[in-house]
Design brief:
about 120 residues, mainly alpha, 4 helices, globular, MazG-like protein
Length: about 120
């Protein structure tokens, strides 16, 4: 099975979630080696929240309100992708179909805002 995502910049959330969990399994191996146990879902959530905080600082830097190094765009993109990765991992760990939930949420917004044709 090819684990790479399509190069046309369109993401299939189901394929992305599978890939996210494959990578997460490698981290679990490291956790077992280093800590003898794997992280709980709560610990995954704390890691996600920590990354969201770092993303917030990068957004502030992008808006000129925080001093950041010269690779801001690369760091911003990487941290956004990491946050998306955590959301995919958490959705899988909580047995949620993120594609279904996202579609349902967007449909509701479209309806609520009168944006749906």
């Amino acid at each position: 099975m090819n684990s790479k995502l399509p190069q046309d910049n369109h993401i299939d959330f189901s394929a992305a979630a599978e890939r996210a969990m494959r990578v997460r399994r490698f981290y679990r191996q490291l956790e077992k080696q280093n800590h003898k146990t794997v992280w709980t879902t709560e610990e995954d959530m704390l890691a996600f929240v920590s990354d969201v905080g770092l993303l917030a600082r990068l957004v502030m830097a992008a808006e000129g309100r925080w001093v950041q190094g010269e690779n801001l765009q690369a760091e911003l993109g990487s941290k956004m992708a990491e946050c998306l990765w955590w959301l995919l991992v958490l959705s899988e760990r909580l047995n949620m179909d993120i594609t279904k939930e996202f579609t349902s949420f967007m449909d509701k917004l479209d309806t609520d805002l009168g944006a749906k044709p």
